[in-house]
């Protein structure tokens, strides 16, 4: 389904032009376009680069008028419990809808600085009727390809603000940031820090905005040095926590914008001989299985990953049937899950 207000995509070069650009025959270029295996790797590379450079538009093999039976789920990676929760939600909703799902990972891998187009080739060859993207970053050319071919697609928790008209599903990240910070404030903490993800991500920005809003509502003076950014991984979160501990007046509590980062915070605190929550309280975000397994068990903000994924699949089904959702953004609520990593402000620490 084309984006609202999106411009039409002009007809691209012919296959003959692509073949000439790559220095191959038209039949060879056709084999690459159609996903044939009987092409040398170096030849395939030259043709693929020519396709990208010239903006060649591959024609889909599927018939969108047919009843949908297959959808693609494109995820950033498959090596985390986050992906497992998304897969679980999509699988259940797809079963209800009588659909089969093909999962692809690593959409954002690049060659020579350009986005890979292999997933587009596979989408074309399989005859998928729609696509779900999770934590994906699409290039303008990839958006244009999907829109031009009227392939319905939905973004699940997009990393960045998608173009106007793109349908997406996410969590109430701002409210989650408010909830986490308010919880620490009610325990008497005023020196509350936040370790967020990448600065430019939608979820990271919204969670920090919620943190700041909660401080303002409580009349607590914000401290710029208490706001740190990591990369949604344990290693950089550990480093940011060590930086906070080295401040002249370190925080007594920290809101960490993902459970995975919170594990890195635990590591940093252990290295300094500090105990959770006796010396410092920690709140995470996500409510992944790791939050329950941590010692002590992590208080966190639950975002309904499986439910978000299922909602995205149901929206995609409606779009494949020719419907247009009333709004482009669907947000599911978050809630605090209290465990053992938060406690009242330690005596003698002051405000």
Protein model, in words:
- This protein has 351 residues and is of the alpha/beta class.
- It is 40% helix and 16% strand.
- It has 12 helices and 14 strands.
- It has a 6-stranded parallel beta sheet, with helices on both faces. Strands 9-8-10-11-12-14 form a 6-stranded mixed beta sheet, sandwiched between helices.
- 44% of the residues are buried.
- Residues 1-11, 60-67 and 108-115 have low confidence and may be disordered.
Throw out a few tags for this protein.
12 helices; elongated; alpha/beta; 16% strand; 351 residues; six-stranded parallel beta sheet
Total strands: 14
Give the SSE order as H and E letters.
HHHEHEEEHEHEEHEHEHEHEHEHEE
By oligomeric state, this entry counts as: single chain
Order of adjacent strands in the largest pleated sheet: 2-1-5-6-7-13
β-strand amount = 15-25%
Overall pLDDT: 86
Percent of residues in helical segments?
40-55%
Major beta sheet, specifics? 6 strands, parallel
């Amino acid at each position: 389904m084309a984006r609202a207000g999106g411009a039409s995509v002009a007809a691209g070069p012919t296959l003959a032009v692509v073949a000439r650009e790559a220095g191959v025959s038209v039949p060879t270029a056709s084999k690459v376009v159609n996903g044939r295996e009987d092409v040398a790797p170096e030849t395939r590379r030259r043709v693929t680069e020519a396709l990208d450079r010239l903006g060649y538009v591959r024609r889909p093999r599927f018939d969108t008028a047919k009843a949908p039976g297959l959808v693609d789920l494109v995820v950033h990676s498959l090596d985390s419990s986050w992906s497992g929760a998304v897969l679980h939600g999509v699988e259940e909703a797809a079963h209800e809808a009588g659909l089969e799902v093909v999962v692809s990972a690593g959409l954002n891998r690049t060659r020579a600085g350009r986005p890979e187009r292999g997933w587009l080739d596979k989408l074309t060859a399989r005859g998928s009727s729609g696509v779900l993207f999770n934590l994906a970053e699409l290039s303008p050319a990839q958006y244009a390809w999907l829109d031009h071919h009227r392939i319905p697609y939905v973004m699940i928790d997009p990393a960045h603000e998608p173009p106007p008209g793109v349908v997406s599903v996410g969590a109430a990240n701002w409210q989650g940031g408010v909830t986490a910070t308010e919880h620490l404030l009610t325990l008497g903490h005023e020196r509350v820090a936040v370790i967020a993800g990448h600065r430019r991500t939608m979820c990271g920005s919204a969670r920090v905005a919620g943190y700041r809003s909660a401080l303002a509502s409580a009349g607590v003076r914000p401290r710029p040095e208490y706001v740190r950014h990591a990369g949604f991984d344990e290693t950089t979160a550990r480093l940011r926590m060590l930086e906070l501990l080295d401040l002249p007046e370190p925080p007594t509590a920290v809101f960490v914008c993902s459970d995975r980062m919170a594990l890195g915070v635990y590591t940093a605190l252990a290295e300094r001989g500090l105990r959770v929550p006796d010396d410092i309280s920690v709140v995470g975000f996500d409510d992944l299985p790791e939050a329950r397994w941590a010692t002590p068990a992590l208080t966190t903000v639950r975002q309904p990953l499986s439910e978000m994924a299922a909602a995205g699949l149901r929206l995609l089904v409606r779009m494949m049937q020719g419907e247009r959702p009333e709004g482009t953004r669907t947000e599911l609520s978050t809630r605090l899950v209290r465990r053992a990593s938060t406690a009242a402000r330690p005596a003698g620490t002051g405000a």
